[in-house]
Specification:
heterodimer; A: six-stranded antiparallel beta sheet; disordered C terminus; B: alpha/beta; Rossmann fold; Arc Repressor Mutant, subunit A; five-stranded parallel beta sheet; 12% strand; globular
Chain lengths: 605, 240
């Protein structure tokens, strides 16, 4: 479906050579590195003096496999600052974390989750229903231990099923994937609402622990369970002096749990039950994992896997693999200098050949990798620094030449200099548009709308056509991907161009609004961005029944429509001779930012 | 558009400093300036640090400032230079069509901006314009200006603004009257935001185009005054 990337579709690793060198450590290993389905001999490299292995490939995708020693006594000591006088069992397993230096700013975890369960029982104590809140990743502001970390409020709501007589809260470290990590809760409150009754609130406090709270003490109304009771402990927050319930899970095959079984909160079927709590957590995995990175730009990267304490603190045990993606020709300044020297005309040809479309296709492909953002920023910078500045200089120099020869040379010569200058100016603007679209800093609606009005007013001012804006005062910073932005920009520009070129209008109106209601059922819940371009020019008959009766000067219409429809949007044009033209385009906006771009990972433990 | 006013500027050369990191472009700017008898280039700087250090000593009439510099941004340089050199006018030059950055520069104390590529005539014309006090405000910038004034008013009404700090409000030179927009200025801004050109505004309000320019210039000044006060208020912790 896709053609092989041509040299100038500069995005990433197109013909990169990778050199991989490895070092090893005792308890964590990089077991395998796979570059585009080909396995690299990592073990050999780990044994000797890390002789680099050169791997010719079209390195699109690099997968690192690593493993730690689940269940092994890798850690003998508690971290400093912890009260060690209590008799606590030794930690048994370690948490496996990884990072790719050069891409990841911090250590990452494979996905693993714990749960908070709202459990309904009948009068005999049999479970008749439950619902879950997943607890995953690391909570905001995590500082290694739950006692020192901020607690974040969450809640879970459910309706009591038939036969339900009581509600129980269960906080446990096993969900879909069993984690290695620490999780803690406080301020657990059950709220029960039913029609015709007042809202009942049952706090489930951690009481009866005495003045000196022992980690293995049990608060009244709560009980510990799970694979090993000692995974569930009580800690006291130094800031408030209040106890919290902690599950410290150091074993991917086991789990810990705290359950409110002893305090039975009565409910009736049909009651709306909400459990709210505050939690701090940091969860990862033990055992094995793999991490996939796509689109690595040229440079040196260092993939590291390390053994960590359940709370995320390093033990110092690490293994690493070095990846060198060599610099391809296109980012070399001397090559660019040559390109620029070819001159304005050649420049024009090259830039057109670079085809925005191919670039956009590649961008769409890579949209979900966070390497993309870095790469995009680099490309934007390179384009700006090299091509943009070079072309700007050519424009200024040819303009200078024109001024020098004015009155001395023939009119034709002056005209040629003028034309060269105008071409260079056009190219600078094209490069500008690409730079703007490529730059990830502009990936939001509140950046896009001013850009659109700014471009429109500059164009219409130059064409001596009045402009009116109908744009909201405040534009929310909703995400808007680079490819979408660029398409929308091109369509609007085309619409305004058409108006000025064919309709001879007095005024062009540009409207932008956000619609929350659905126009087409498929995007019932996402807001729509609606852009209108309206002119009071001469209008034209719309090709209605006769296929192919496309208006001669407006062959761009089909193109505009296709672009908008490719974005899942809708394109409407109204025009009649003497009555002006109105173009409306509506595209759905992606508001779900839950998918974290960057990397896909699999776990096999 | 205000080239007619050239005769009213001071006689003698206009002293210009250039801040641009790209060596080729810097050279071109200098050539263009030196190629005209009207201007003199008194200094050309490649980095923000050099510019912030060197320009106050030169006290040029106009600074041409690139938005993107290797060590800092042009906006940061404006924040430092503008309070030190009240008589100097700063013209921002940018490649990106980036209204956000342009607005930040204007709020920090710049008096106008140019989008690259800047042809020699346009550069010289813009310097003349800025000296004559008539740098046009685009509608997109006008929208940001109006937003800024509105949110400041809202903050002041709520009594939460840093501008309310006693350290500042006892300063008689900076009473709120110098900062809030007059109804006429407000009207000009609102028409700009809707898309009206200077000429259309002048017809609508029955004033001359250059008066529209004067209103815009006052709006710029008010924006600078209140931005500067906000910066100062922020630099005095514990007073707000």
């Amino acid at each position: 479906m896709r053609t092989a990337p041509k040299p100038l579709s500069v995005l990433v690793a197109a013909s990169a050579w990778c050199a991989i060198a490895a070092t090893a450590a005792a308890d964590v290993r990089i077991t395998k590195v796979v570059v585009d389905e080909r396995e690299m001999p990592v073990e050999a490299a780990q044994a000797a003096d890390a002789t680099p292995i050169r791997v010719p490939s079209n390195a699109k995708r690099i997968v690192f496999f690593c493993e730690g020693e689940a269940g092994a006594p890798a850690v003998q000591k508690r971290p400093a600052g912890r009260k060690t006088e209590e008799k606590l069992p030794e930690l048994r397993g370690t948490r496996l974390r990884y990072r790719l230096d050069g891409i990841d700013a911090d250590w990452r975890d494979a996905r693993a989750e714990g749960r908070l369960t709202l459990n309904f029982r009948d009068a005999e104590g049999n479970t008749v229903g439950s619902s879950d809140a997943r607890i995953e990743g690391t909570s905001e502001g995590w500082r290694g231990l739950p006692e020192a970390s901020p607690l974040t409020a969450s809640s879970l709501s459910s309706v009591a099923p038939p036969l339900a007589a009581k509600a129980i809260v269960n906080f446990l470290s096993n969900g879909g994937d069993e984690p290695v990590g620490i999780m803690a809760i406080d301020d657990v409150v059950l709220s029960i609402a039913a029609e015709g009754r007042e809202l009942r609130r049952h706090a489930l406090p951690f009481v009866g622990l005495g003045d000196e709270v022992h980690p293995l003490a049990t608060p009244g109304g709560w009980g510990r369970s799970g694979s090993r009771g000692e995974m569930s402990r009580v800690a006291v927050r130094p800031d408030s002096g209040k106890p919290i319930l902690v599950i410290e899970d150091d074993d991917p095959t086991a789990y810990g749990s705290w359950m409110s079984s002893r305090e039975e909160v009565p409910v009736e079927p049909g009651d709306a039950v909400t459990v709210s709590w505050r939690a701090a957590h940091s969860l990862g995995i033990g055992g094995r994992t793999s991490a996939t990175y796509t689109g690595l730009g040229p440079g040196t990267y260092w993939f590291r896997a390390g053994a960590f304490l359940p709370g995320g603190q390093p033990t110092g045990v690490e293994a690493g693999v070095r990846v060198l993606v060599v610099v391809p020709w296109y980012s070399r300044r001397d090559v660019w200098a040559g390109v620029v020297a070819v001159g304005v005309v050649a420049g024009a040809l090259v830039a057109r050949a670079v085809s925005l479309r191919r670039m956009r296709r590649r961008l769409v492909e890579m949209e979900r990798t966070h390497a993309l953002d870095r790469e995009r920023a680099r490309i934007a910078r390179d384009l700006h620094d090299d091509i943009g500045a070079g072309l700007t200089e050519i424009a200024m120099q040819t303009d200078w030449v024109r001024r020098d020869v004015q009155g001395l040379a023939s009119a034709a010569t002056v005209a040629r200099a003028e034309k060269a200058c105008a071409s260079a100016m056009d190219l600078v603007r094209s490069v500008d548009a690409i730079v703007w679209a490529v730059n990830p800093a502009n990936d939001t609606l509140d950046r896009f709308v001013p850009y659109l009005t700014h471009s429109a007013e500059q164009f219409l001012d130059a064409a001596d056509v009045s402009v009116r804006f109908d744009v909201p005062d405040k534009v929310p910073p909703l995400p808007l991907a680079g490819a979408v932005r660029h398409d929308l920009f091109l369509v609007v520009r085309e619409a305004i161009n058409n108006a000025v070129k064919h309709a001879r209008p007095q005024v062009v109106r540009l409207g932008v609004r956000l619609d929350n209601g659905a126009v087409h059922g498929s995007h019932a819940n996402s807001p729509q961005l609606v852009i209108t371009v309206e002119d009071d020019g001469q209008g034209f008959p719309l090709p209605t029944s006769v296929p192919g009766a496309q208006h001669a000067g407006r062959s761009g219409l089909a193109n505009m429509r296709r672009r908008v429809e490719d974005l899942g949007g809708r394109f409407v044009i109204e025009s009649r001779p003497g009555g002006g033209t109105r173009i409306e385009l509506a595209v759905p906006l992606e508001t779900d930012s839950a998918t974290v771009p960057g990397l896909r990972q699999g776990k096999t433990s | 558009m205000s080239a007619i006013q050239v005769g009213t500027i001071q006689v003698g050369t206009i002293r210009v400093a250039v801040v641009e990191d790209d060596a080729r472009l810097r050279r071109t700017f200098v050539d263009v300036l030196e190629g005209s008898a009207e201007f003199r280039c008194v200094g050309a700087f490649a980095t923000g640090a050099e510019a912030v250090d060197g320009i106050p000593k030169l006290a040029p009439d106009v600074v041409i400032m690139d938005v993107n510099l290797p060590d800092t941004t042009g906006v940061e340089c404006v924040k430092i230079l503008a309070p030190k050199l009240p008589a100097t006018q700063i013209l921002m030059v940018t490649v990106y069509q980036d209204p956000d950055t342009t607005f930040q520069a204007l709020a920090a104390g710049a008096h106008g901006y140019l989008v690259k590529p800047v042809l020699s005539e346009r550069l010289l014309e813009a310097i003349r314009e800025i000296r004559a006090g008539g740098v046009p405000m685009s509608r997109t910038i006008a929208r940001k200006v109006i937003e800024t004034f509105r949110s400041r008013e809202a903050a002041e009404a709520a009594g939460t603004s840093a501008a309310r700090s006693p350290a500042v409000s006892t300063d008689p030179a900076a009473s709120t009257d110098d900062e809030s927009l007059t109804p006429r200025e407000q009207q000009v801004l609102e028409l700009l935001v809707e898309g009206f050109s200077y000429k259309e505004i002048s017809q609508r309000l029955g004033i001359s185009t250059s008066t529209v320019g004067t209103y815009v210039q006052r709006i710029y000044e008010k924006l600078h005054v209140s931005s500067r006060r906000e910066i100062m208020a922020r630099r005095r912790p514990g007073r707000g």
